[in-house]
Amino acid sequence: MSGNRFHCAEPAEGITFKNSKVAAELAAASLVLAGVAGVGTGVASADTTPPACQQTANATHNSGWMGAWINNTFAKSVSAASFAAGTQVTYTDVVGTTSIGNPYVNTFTDYPPPGFGKPIKAQVTAYHFGQGQVTEDVTAAPDRGGWNVTSTGWFVNSGNPVTITMTYLVPTTLQDGQQVVSGGMSVGGTAGISTDVPEDGVCFTVRGANPGEALLGSADATGLGSATNQLSSTGSVTDGITRIIKNLIPGS
After folding, report:
1. Is residue 146 scored above 70 in pLDDT?
2. 46 Cα distance to chain centroid
3. DSSP single-letter state for residue 227
4. Domain map (residue ranges) of the chain
5. What is the mean pLDDT of the segment spanning 111-126?
6. How confident is the model at residue 243 (pLDDT cuts 50, 70, 90)?
7. Fold of 56-207
8. pTM reported for the whole predicted model
9. What pLDDT, on the 0 to 100 scale, is given for residue 30?
10. What is the top-level taxon of the source organism (predicted)?
11. Using CA atoms, how far apart are residues 72 and 231, in angstroms rounded to an integer?
12. What SS3 class is residue 3?
């Protein structure tokens, strides 16, 4: 062997391959070896796979000396991988810290996908002294293309993040199979916590309505249903039918 090249020795004098099957197997083996050697060259090729439709996103920001070098975390998720048009979708945003310190959040903006209306429900879960984590309903107001909630200050430390959930109706103009990507979030508060996090967008895919969702949609169209009682992606067919029956019963 020389020059890092494989060299097959010549058959010894007087030795010949009388069996064609043996020769064929040797040829096949050489092809296999060549294929194995070529695997390494294929790994370096560019990955052309499109990015997946992700239901979660996370980011960590550090404001340096302005924020006492504290790492603050920002996470966003969507409540399911797929939704039917006209149903409810909930986005959950979590603001926390992995460092010492206890920043306060006093304003928060969620950015839903383009074309979404005002959230039909907004809640904040935050630490309250003597009570622990408490969930409260809040009112969202429009803010730069998103929806904003405010407080005198939600306490945050490494064991107590602040969690904001906003529930929207999926627009009926969306098509089955369409991927719907949200914006991120924006946070305001004490030094170091205030930041925009556009990279925290998440995605879901529009699907056809299941029987319960389709039934509720028909009831809404005829005035028997309620726009505020739509099924979410995780709602059951039984729940939907029960709601319609209750709407049909006088006084219910």
Report:
1. yes
2. 25
3. G
4. 56-207, 211-248
5. 98
6. low
7. Immunoglobulin-like (2.60.40)
8. 0.68
9. 45
10. Bacteria
11. 35
12. coil
